[in-house]
Amino acid sequence: MERLIVNAEGKVVIPPEVIQRRGLRPGDELMLVEAAEGLLVYQGGSDPETAAWWNSLSEDERRLAEVEARRYAALTTEEQDVIWNEEMESIEAAAEGDEVEVPLNKRLA
Amino acid sequence: MYEARVRLALGQPPTMQQAEAANVWSRLRALGIPLHITAQTEHILQRRPAVFATALLMHTRALQKGRYYLRRWARRLRDISFSPEDAIVLAYGSFGLDLQVQRVGVEAIVTNDVKLAANFTTRFNTIQEHFANMVSQLPEPYQELTLPIVVATAEVLAEE
Predict the structure, then answer these.
(1) ipTM score of the complex?
(2) Closest chain A residue by Cα to residue B67
Protein backbone atom coordinates (compact mmCIF):
# COMPACT_ATOMS: atom_id res chain seq x y z
CA MET A 1 0.00 0.00 0.00
CA GLU A 2 1.26 3.45 -0.91
CA ARG A 3 0.47 6.73 0.82
CA LEU A 4 -0.36 9.50 -1.64
CA ILE A 5 -0.64 13.22 -0.91
CA VAL A 6 -3.16 15.38 -2.72
CA ASN A 7 -1.66 18.71 -3.76
CA ALA A 8 -3.38 22.08 -4.02
CA GLU A 9 -4.52 21.30 -7.56
CA GLY A 10 -6.12 18.02 -6.50
CA LYS A 11 -3.37 15.95 -8.11
CA VAL A 12 -1.59 12.95 -6.65
CA VAL A 13 1.76 11.56 -7.72
CA ILE A 14 2.18 7.83 -8.13
CA PRO A 15 5.58 6.74 -6.82
CA PRO A 16 8.05 5.90 -9.64
CA GLU A 17 8.59 2.35 -8.35
CA VAL A 18 4.85 1.68 -8.65
CA ILE A 19 4.82 3.20 -12.15
CA GLN A 20 7.65 0.86 -13.12
CA ARG A 21 6.22 -2.21 -11.40
CA ARG A 22 2.80 -1.79 -13.04
CA GLY A 23 4.24 -0.93 -16.44
CA LEU A 24 2.40 2.40 -16.56
CA ARG A 25 3.17 4.81 -19.35
CA PRO A 26 2.19 8.44 -19.97
CA GLY A 27 -1.37 8.55 -21.26
CA ASP A 28 -2.43 5.27 -19.62
CA GLU A 29 -5.90 5.40 -18.15
CA LEU A 30 -6.63 4.59 -14.52
CA MET A 31 -10.04 4.21 -12.95
CA LEU A 32 -10.78 5.97 -9.66
CA VAL A 33 -13.52 4.20 -7.77
CA GLU A 34 -15.32 5.62 -4.76
CA ALA A 35 -15.96 2.63 -2.51
CA ALA A 36 -17.21 2.38 1.05
CA GLU A 37 -13.61 1.84 2.15
CA GLY A 38 -12.33 4.94 0.37
CA LEU A 39 -10.91 5.60 -3.07
CA LEU A 40 -9.56 2.74 -5.11
CA VAL A 41 -7.41 3.14 -8.20
CA TYR A 42 -7.66 0.47 -10.87
CA GLN A 43 -5.23 0.05 -13.68
CA GLY A 44 -6.96 -0.27 -17.01
CA GLY A 45 -6.43 -3.45 -18.95
CA SER A 46 -5.77 -6.82 -17.47
CA ASP A 47 -4.34 -7.83 -14.13
CA PRO A 48 -0.95 -9.58 -14.27
CA GLU A 49 -2.38 -13.09 -13.97
CA THR A 50 -5.00 -12.63 -16.69
CA ALA A 51 -2.34 -11.12 -18.93
CA ALA A 52 -0.03 -14.05 -18.14
CA TRP A 53 -2.82 -16.47 -19.09
CA TRP A 54 -3.26 -14.73 -22.44
CA ASN A 55 0.48 -14.67 -23.07
CA SER A 56 0.68 -18.40 -22.34
CA LEU A 57 -1.71 -19.23 -25.19
CA SER A 58 -0.38 -20.34 -28.56
CA GLU A 59 -1.51 -18.58 -31.73
CA ASP A 60 -4.00 -21.37 -32.40
CA GLU A 61 -5.38 -21.15 -28.87
CA ARG A 62 -5.74 -17.39 -29.19
CA ARG A 63 -7.67 -17.79 -32.41
CA LEU A 64 -9.89 -20.38 -30.74
CA ALA A 65 -10.36 -18.08 -27.73
CA GLU A 66 -11.40 -15.26 -30.01
CA VAL A 67 -13.95 -17.46 -31.79
CA GLU A 68 -15.38 -18.68 -28.50
CA ALA A 69 -15.37 -15.15 -27.09
CA ARG A 70 -17.33 -13.86 -30.08
CA ARG A 71 -19.82 -16.68 -29.66
CA TYR A 72 -20.26 -15.82 -25.96
CA ALA A 73 -20.46 -12.08 -26.60
CA ALA A 74 -23.19 -12.67 -29.19
CA LEU A 75 -25.47 -14.05 -26.46
CA THR A 76 -27.90 -11.74 -24.73
CA THR A 77 -27.35 -10.99 -21.06
CA GLU A 78 -30.29 -13.28 -20.26
CA GLU A 79 -28.74 -16.10 -22.27
CA GLN A 80 -25.41 -15.61 -20.50
CA ASP A 81 -27.21 -15.66 -17.14
CA VAL A 82 -28.82 -18.97 -18.06
CA ILE A 83 -25.37 -20.49 -18.51
CA TRP A 84 -24.22 -19.37 -15.07
CA ASN A 85 -27.45 -20.40 -13.38
CA GLU A 86 -27.52 -23.93 -14.73
CA GLU A 87 -27.96 -26.61 -12.10
CA MET A 88 -29.09 -24.05 -9.56
CA GLU A 89 -28.89 -25.92 -6.31
CA SER A 90 -32.03 -26.45 -4.31
CA ILE A 91 -31.85 -25.91 -0.59
CA GLU A 92 -34.95 -27.95 0.11
CA ALA A 93 -34.72 -31.10 2.20
CA ALA A 94 -36.22 -33.06 -0.68
CA ALA A 95 -33.11 -32.32 -2.76
CA GLU A 96 -30.83 -33.98 -0.23
CA GLY A 97 -29.18 -37.17 -1.38
CA ASP A 98 -26.30 -35.82 -3.45
CA GLU A 99 -24.21 -34.86 -0.44
CA VAL A 100 -20.88 -36.31 0.59
CA GLU A 101 -20.47 -38.23 3.83
CA VAL A 102 -17.46 -37.11 5.83
CA PRO A 103 -15.61 -39.78 7.76
CA LEU A 104 -16.22 -38.52 11.26
CA ASN A 105 -13.21 -40.28 12.69
CA LYS A 106 -11.11 -37.61 10.98
CA ARG A 107 -10.62 -34.33 12.75
CA LEU A 108 -11.91 -31.51 10.60
CA ALA A 109 -9.60 -28.60 10.03
CA MET B 1 -12.82 -13.93 -14.01
CA TYR B 2 -14.18 -15.94 -16.91
CA GLU B 3 -15.74 -12.94 -18.58
CA ALA B 4 -12.62 -10.83 -18.05
CA ARG B 5 -10.78 -13.42 -20.13
CA VAL B 6 -13.51 -13.43 -22.74
CA ARG B 7 -13.21 -9.66 -23.03
CA LEU B 8 -9.42 -9.88 -23.25
CA ALA B 9 -9.77 -12.32 -26.16
CA LEU B 10 -11.96 -9.71 -27.85
CA GLY B 11 -9.36 -7.03 -27.20
CA GLN B 12 -11.57 -5.29 -24.65
CA PRO B 13 -10.59 -4.17 -21.13
CA PRO B 14 -12.43 -5.79 -18.23
CA THR B 15 -15.39 -4.08 -16.61
CA MET B 16 -14.82 -2.67 -13.15
CA GLN B 17 -16.39 -5.71 -11.47
CA GLN B 18 -14.34 -8.07 -13.60
CA ALA B 19 -11.17 -6.10 -12.84
CA GLU B 20 -11.96 -6.27 -9.13
CA ALA B 21 -12.49 -10.03 -9.25
CA ALA B 22 -9.38 -10.63 -11.34
CA ASN B 23 -7.24 -8.48 -9.05
CA VAL B 24 -8.52 -10.27 -5.96
CA TRP B 25 -7.81 -13.61 -7.64
CA SER B 26 -4.26 -12.49 -8.47
CA ARG B 27 -3.64 -11.17 -4.98
CA LEU B 28 -4.92 -14.27 -3.18
CA ARG B 29 -3.04 -16.58 -5.53
CA ALA B 30 0.16 -14.59 -5.00
CA LEU B 31 -0.30 -15.05 -1.25
CA GLY B 32 -0.66 -18.80 -1.74
CA ILE B 33 -4.20 -18.82 -0.37
CA PRO B 34 -6.20 -21.82 -1.65
CA LEU B 35 -9.21 -20.77 -3.69
CA HIS B 36 -12.47 -22.67 -3.77
CA ILE B 37 -15.55 -22.69 -5.95
CA THR B 38 -18.87 -24.43 -5.44
CA ALA B 39 -19.58 -27.76 -7.08
CA GLN B 40 -22.18 -25.99 -9.23
CA THR B 41 -19.61 -23.52 -10.57
CA GLU B 42 -17.20 -26.37 -11.24
CA HIS B 43 -19.83 -28.21 -13.29
CA ILE B 44 -20.62 -25.08 -15.28
CA LEU B 45 -16.95 -24.35 -15.97
CA GLN B 46 -16.39 -27.93 -17.05
CA ARG B 47 -18.90 -27.35 -19.84
CA ARG B 48 -17.43 -24.03 -20.97
CA PRO B 49 -14.70 -23.78 -23.64
CA ALA B 50 -11.51 -25.19 -22.17
CA VAL B 51 -9.42 -22.31 -23.44
CA PHE B 52 -11.08 -20.08 -20.82
CA ALA B 53 -12.14 -22.54 -18.16
CA THR B 54 -9.16 -24.88 -17.73
CA ALA B 55 -6.87 -22.40 -15.99
CA LEU B 56 -9.65 -21.38 -13.61
CA LEU B 57 -10.46 -24.98 -12.73
CA MET B 58 -6.78 -25.81 -12.35
CA HIS B 59 -6.27 -23.17 -9.68
CA THR B 60 -9.39 -23.82 -7.65
CA ARG B 61 -10.81 -26.69 -5.64
CA ALA B 62 -14.51 -27.41 -5.71
CA LEU B 63 -16.32 -27.68 -2.39
CA GLN B 64 -18.73 -30.60 -2.15
CA LYS B 65 -21.96 -30.61 -0.22
CA GLY B 66 -21.57 -32.17 3.20
CA ARG B 67 -24.30 -34.61 4.16
CA TYR B 68 -27.36 -33.14 5.90
CA TYR B 69 -25.80 -29.99 7.26
CA LEU B 70 -25.15 -27.79 4.23
CA ARG B 71 -28.73 -27.56 2.99
CA ARG B 72 -30.07 -27.43 6.54
CA TRP B 73 -27.90 -24.37 7.21
CA ALA B 74 -28.92 -22.84 3.89
CA ARG B 75 -32.58 -23.12 4.90
CA ARG B 76 -31.86 -21.39 8.20
CA LEU B 77 -30.04 -18.61 6.37
CA ARG B 78 -33.02 -18.21 4.09
CA ASP B 79 -35.14 -17.76 7.22
CA ILE B 80 -32.77 -14.92 8.22
CA SER B 81 -33.74 -13.15 4.97
CA PHE B 82 -31.07 -14.36 2.53
CA SER B 83 -32.21 -15.40 -0.93
CA PRO B 84 -31.93 -19.13 -1.71
CA GLU B 85 -29.05 -18.34 -4.13
CA ASP B 86 -27.11 -16.39 -1.50
CA ALA B 87 -27.99 -18.89 1.23
CA ILE B 88 -26.51 -21.82 -0.66
CA VAL B 89 -23.23 -19.96 -1.29
CA LEU B 90 -23.01 -18.95 2.37
CA ALA B 91 -23.78 -22.53 3.40
CA TYR B 92 -20.98 -23.83 1.18
CA GLY B 93 -18.70 -21.47 3.08
CA SER B 94 -19.58 -23.17 6.35
CA PHE B 95 -20.29 -26.78 5.38
CA GLY B 96 -18.67 -27.21 1.98
CA LEU B 97 -16.17 -30.06 1.98
CA ASP B 98 -12.70 -29.81 0.53
CA LEU B 99 -12.15 -33.52 0.08
CA GLN B 100 -8.54 -33.09 -0.92
CA VAL B 101 -7.55 -31.91 2.54
CA GLN B 102 -10.61 -33.22 4.45
CA ARG B 103 -11.55 -29.74 5.52
CA VAL B 104 -15.00 -28.34 6.17
CA GLY B 105 -15.78 -24.72 5.38
CA VAL B 106 -13.63 -21.79 4.37
CA GLU B 107 -12.24 -18.76 6.14
CA ALA B 108 -13.75 -16.15 3.86
CA ILE B 109 -16.25 -15.80 1.07
CA VAL B 110 -15.28 -13.08 -1.39
CA THR B 111 -18.05 -11.58 -3.45
CA ASN B 112 -18.73 -8.83 -5.95
CA ASP B 113 -22.17 -8.57 -4.41
CA VAL B 114 -21.85 -5.62 -2.05
CA LYS B 115 -25.40 -6.10 -0.79
CA LEU B 116 -24.72 -9.70 0.21
CA ALA B 117 -21.59 -8.68 2.11
CA ALA B 118 -23.42 -5.83 3.83
CA ASN B 119 -26.41 -8.02 4.69
CA PHE B 120 -24.12 -10.65 6.22
CA THR B 121 -22.23 -8.04 8.26
CA THR B 122 -25.41 -6.35 9.46
CA ARG B 123 -26.99 -9.62 10.55
CA PHE B 124 -23.79 -11.23 11.78
CA ASN B 125 -24.82 -11.52 15.42
CA THR B 126 -28.08 -13.24 14.52
CA ILE B 127 -26.33 -15.53 12.04
CA GLN B 128 -23.66 -16.34 14.60
CA GLU B 129 -26.31 -17.20 17.19
CA HIS B 130 -28.15 -19.53 14.81
CA PHE B 131 -24.89 -21.10 13.67
CA ALA B 132 -23.67 -21.76 17.21
CA ASN B 133 -27.03 -23.26 18.05
CA MET B 134 -26.91 -25.55 15.03
CA VAL B 135 -23.34 -26.79 15.33
CA SER B 136 -23.76 -27.44 19.05
CA GLN B 137 -26.25 -30.15 18.10
CA LEU B 138 -23.94 -31.80 15.55
CA PRO B 139 -21.37 -34.55 16.11
CA GLU B 140 -18.16 -33.43 17.78
CA PRO B 141 -15.93 -32.52 14.84
CA TYR B 142 -18.59 -30.14 13.53
CA GLN B 143 -18.93 -28.40 16.88
CA GLU B 144 -15.56 -26.77 16.27
CA LEU B 145 -16.65 -25.05 13.08
CA THR B 146 -16.72 -21.28 12.88
CA LEU B 147 -18.50 -18.97 10.50
CA PRO B 148 -16.57 -17.64 7.53
CA ILE B 149 -16.43 -13.91 7.00
CA VAL B 150 -18.01 -12.43 3.90
CA VAL B 151 -16.00 -9.68 2.23
CA ALA B 152 -16.57 -7.59 -0.86
CA THR B 153 -13.86 -7.65 -3.52
CA ALA B 154 -13.23 -3.94 -3.00
CA GLU B 155 -12.54 -4.61 0.69
CA VAL B 156 -9.92 -7.24 -0.17
CA LEU B 157 -8.19 -4.84 -2.53
CA ALA B 158 -8.29 -2.06 0.06
CA GLU B 159 -6.53 -4.21 2.65
CA GLU B 160 -2.82 -3.85 3.13
Answers:
(1) 0.81
(2) A99
Is A84 within 8 Å of B44 when comparing Cβ atoms? yes
Question: What length is written for chain B?
Answer: 160
Phi and psi at B22, nearest 5°, equal -65, -35
CA B30 to mean position of chain CA atoms: 18
Query: Which helix (H) or strand (E) is A62 found in, with range?
Result: helix A59-73
CA distance B107 to chain A (A): 11
What CA–CA distance (Å, rounded) separates B157 from B150?
14
Q: Are the C-beta atoms of B150 and B157 separated by less than 8 Å?
A: no
pLDDT tens, position by position, A33-44: 666 667 877 776
The amino acid present at A104, given as its one-letter code, is L
pTM: 0.78
Domain parsing of chain A, residue ranges = 12-45, 48-85
